[in-house]
Amino acid sequence: KAAHNWREFLIEIGTIICGILIALGLEQMVTAFEWSRKVSETREALALELAENLGKAQTRIWLASCTDQRLDALAGVIDRAARTGALPPLPTPERPPYYSWGTGVWSSALSAQTASHLPGEQLRAYSRFYQVLDRIAATEPQEEAAWTTLFGLAGPGRPFDAEDARVYRHAIGEARQFNGLISGFGVRAQQVVDAYHLTYDPRVFADRTASNRKGALVCGAPTGTPPATYGAAPGAGFAQYARGHPTK
Question: Residue 86: what are its φ and ψ, rounded to 5°?
Fold first, then answer.
């Protein structure tokens, strides 16, 4: 009904304003609760993703010295072949593992704007961690290219000249450079997690680290039967490996 005086009018306006404020407050509470739930779920998913990535990074740190020793052995083979003019029969040298680095959870958190609701310091920490991960992912293909060249040493034995020595010594240097960068970035990733106390799943981290180390073949001198022909490549047996290790 229409207000008959200013007092009734003000009471009516005040009631409407209070109703609007209550509705807005309840809406904000619901929104805040919903974002809190999304952030909590994102943290849990990030804890799994970080554990997977840290397990891979720790494997590369652990394998760094083994990889350098393998490169030392190959450098010795190249030096001797350069002196004698003959490359002896060599098995495939194996190389450090080539990983895919998980960033799906973090990318989803950014696109869904969930990341913006994290505390400022935590947001910076996750950003730094994934920036380091991007550096590793960008370096790995270059390392793979260097090792693809080194796989050219594997075979039944052949003449070896100064140009061969130059090509393979250059590949040795590149492989050593990228091994140092990837293992160093792995150390940086762990340092970021420790410095900012980011949470990661310890069980997943331990399982990933253990399984990765079990399959490491890069330590020690190259072993096995030399291929009957030249043309070995790191990814030649990947289809067979994929069939034997289906994704989960």
Answer: -140, 130
Please answer whether residues 172 and 108 qualify as being in contact, where contact means their C-beta atoms are separated by less than 8 angstroms.
no
**What is the rounded distance in angstroms from the CA atom of residue 71 to the CA atom of residue 93?**
9
Neighbours of 211 (CB within 10 A): 11
Place of tokens 């958190």: 109
Task: Please say whether the beta carbons of 173 and 104 come within 8 A.
Answer: no
pLDDT below 50 — which residues of the chain?
none
Distance of CA 123 to the CA centre of its chain: 19
Tokens at 132, concatenated: 């380091």
Q: Using alpha carbons, select from 134, 139, 135 the residue that is nearest to residue 110.
A: 134
pTM of the predicted protein model: 0.82
DSSP-assigned letter for residue 59: H
What is the 8-class DSSP label of residue 101? P
Is the CB of residue 45 less than 8 Å from the CB of residue 102? Answer: no
Note the pLDDT of residue 216: 64
- What pLDDT was estimated at residue 16? 75
Closest C-alpha among 207, 217, 209, 205 to residue 241 = 217
- pLDDT tens for 172-226 read 999 999 999 999 999 999 999 999 999 999 999 998 888 777 656 667 677 789 9
Closest CA to 90 of 102, 98, 100, 80: 80
DSSP letters for 132-167: HHHHHHHHHHHHHHHHHHHGGG-BS-EE--HHHHHH
